[in-house]
Amino acid sequence: MNGHPARPPRAGIVITGTEVLTGRVRDRNGPWLSDRLLEAGVDLAHVAIVGDRPADMHAALAFMAREGLDVVLTSGGLGPTADDLTAEVIGSFQGREMMIDAALEGRIAEILRPLAERYPNFDREAIALGNRKQATIPEGATVLEPVGTAPGLVVAPAEGSRGPTIVVLPGPPRELQPMWRQALATEAWRAAITGARVYRRRMLRLFGIPESEIAETLRHAEREGVDLAHLEITTCLRGGEIEIVTRYEPGAQDAYEAFAQIVATRHADTLYSVDGTTVDDQVAALLRGEVLASAESRGQGGARRTIAVAESCTGGLLLARLTNPPGASAYVLGGVVAYSNDVKVAQVGVERETIERHGAVSAEVAQALAGGARARLGADVGVGLTGIAGPSGGGDEKPVGLVWTCVVGPEGASLTRSARLPGARPDVRERAVTVAMHLIRRLLAGGSPEKKFRPAH
Amino acid sequence: MNGHPARPPRAGIVITGTEVLTGRVRDRNGPWLSDRLLEAGVDLAHVAIVGDRPADMHAALAFMAREGLDVVLTSGGLGPTADDLTAEVIGSFQGREMMIDAALEGRIAEILRPLAERYPNFDREAIALGNRKQATIPEGATVLEPVGTAPGLVVAPAEGSRGPTIVVLPGPPRELQPMWRQALATEAWRAAITGARVYRRRMLRLFGIPESEIAETLRHAEREGVDLAHLEITTCLRGGEIEIVTRYEPGAQDAYEAFAQIVATRHADTLYSVDGTTVDDQVAALLRGEVLASAESRGQGGARRTIAVAESCTGGLLLARLTNPPGASAYVLGGVVAYSNDVKVAQVGVERETIERHGAVSAEVAQALAGGARARLGADVGVGLTGIAGPSGGGDEKPVGLVWTCVVGPEGASLTRSARLPGARPDVRERAVTVAMHLIRRLLAGGSPEKKFRPAH
């Protein structure tokens, strides 16, 4: 129960598992749950990572209870083996006896049946034991139906006790994520977050401006009388892109729209997403011939287009990113990773003289790569990318981080840009791909690209 | 001070920053520090992630103190602006007054000078204020010299108090990591971990066996009389590879060697690394013509070899992984991402009839891709990879996850394998690349591959 309905409920997350604690496995649940809590109007105060020792898990829960948190989410430790201890620790922490839920035991057995049939040499007794263990839950807990074989739980403190309600979720993200929806619908969850306000959450994405300009825009919005007090705005710089996330109560919708309008006006050249879509989403949609929601290209949706790439310093990362979405084979024909100059000449048709005269990292070679990829693979759109990823190979005139990108489309449409990217080799490679994705988007979305891109040097 | 010299010192890590707490930025320091603590013989008990609220940071520190931890490491919150509060919170927590370290202030000013010269329109007063703020430290703290502009700190509890010694480190990994070495050398750190034993840490890497066989090998080692009681063995399954990490005191070296020998004997076909090297390290070394440390290929080092790839369902990920190490341009010529069948024919020279007769996902097409990549790009080694990454495109005979890989080398050497990989599209792509890396390694390292690979179906 939330004793202070005037403030948002506060939450903690406890990630369990020695493999996560020791960094051998990366936790993907904490960040995901943190976004979901934001949407649910719950403030996240603490994340704790603990190993598989019950005493440490208990200590982390006690810490969060002492902090007065209203809800705690846990992930992991719900497997069938004896070292998966979360349910038992939570039961004891909440002062509830453990009991076997016979109906649940039967449902888990149903889930396990095909597995046992497929692998007849599995130990049947071990399976039955694990089945029973997973059906042993704290008395009075709300069961969240298994997505894999592990049920989740929502466990309030025992009658007469105080403390957080605990939502117990499995470790694998593909099980945890659907189960979260179930948890939200339970009476126990709703009771725990009484007083939570409903928030809206919107994201603006920009590319190609420094973060400091957003700070200036916020000051400008304030001067213009936009009521920023009811908008919770956070900006984040990520791989050269800026994300502006705003959380607000429905009553502040007008304030948000006024703010978003100021961003759109001041940053018309660099704001590319107002609906949460990424540049990857937009490039895929444009290649499929879909209409984008963003203002710039409204109504621009058109024909499906195929794409081919010739990339050098990024070594396949651009093609890997383009082929990442399911269904990419409908529009990605493929490409050439032209790491050596010989491959640029033989496989893409770049003239050796162009390389000799301008150097492999040049506008001319980027253009020849784009044109060659388009022509040789018979694609509608061709992309060329060449640069110096480092750590060696840079010079005064062409330093590490210099990248040239070119995109050519039908009817002679073409954009060529250079960028000087900061960071070490992996950063340069990653960011060069992001630069290319934005250039592809810009060519496909139309608009007036020349005035919209600032030359990098 | 560690009051229980008989047990290893225990540590906690506090990661600060609202961006990390809310999952907008991924923490890379926790896993790194956790490995370093393991090496230093310190047990990691808790990781806490907190936002930029001083009260939450204080609560996390109090929790770790109550848990009786000997040392706490913090990362982040050391910047020049007023919302970077870590030093102040730590000072107050340890009962130490804040003071300006004038000498440190001068050293930071020296670091900032070139910055101020390069950007003359930066606000000089703001820089001076930030400089002073970063030189304001808890009285009696040991200063760790700045790597960027932020100094780190080692702060013991005030005279007469009990509690953990706190090592205060900056957030950016490139600053935190070198500073950690400084921290290890301080008197304050050594005093805090009195009684820490020195541990050795070794890693064995295997590919192509289920984790359960390692459990069986552990039982076998026990039956053979290996003293496992003094070895702390953890196994971890990661992307189809198994890592066996063993930590032990120097006195248990014989026990470790006996254990490692049993693994080497029982898993001769799948153990590929005994020295911590990854398959990526080994493939790069073999292509550079270096000698591997692993037993299998001892003395096999030889000529430098160039490599070319034609990949389909992995869409560039294999080439991206091969070109990841600095200096890869010395041996990676490039390759073709042959996503469409037309590209397989036109760019790699696969016969259309081969595709029609056997299907694009087949041993024959994988071989034609490998041979084509090798011939067309003039490489010593050619790799072909074709498969079904899903979610669609699979059938009964050729399900999602089926991948064929082929590696061809000089003098007709050739290996072709299929695998059926579990998971969703990104998992299949990632794992297919790992399978290919191991096949490349096997061809280059020699040995007797036929008996060493189990057919996948």
Question: Could you characterize the architecture of this molecule?
Answer:
Two copies of one chain form a homodimer. The first copy, chain A, has 457 residues and is α/β, with parallel strands linked by helices. Chain A folds into three domains: 183 residues, MoaB/Mog-like domain (Molybdenum Cofactor Biosythetic Enzyme, Chain A, 3-Layer(aba) Sandwich); 73 residues, Alpha-Beta Plaits (2-Layer Sandwich); 150 residues, Alpha-Beta Complex (Maf protein). Chain A has 17 helices and 17 strands. In chain A, strands 2-1-3-8-7-6 form a six-stranded mixed sheet, sandwiched between helices. In chain A, strands 14-13-15-16-17 form a five-stranded mixed sheet. Chain A has a four-stranded antiparallel sheet with strand order 10-11-9-12, with helices on one face. Chains A and B meet through helix 1, helix 2, strand 2, helix 3 and strand 10 of A and helix 1, helix 2, strand 2, helix 3 and strand 10 of B. Strand 2 of chain A pairs antiparallel with strand 2 of chain B.
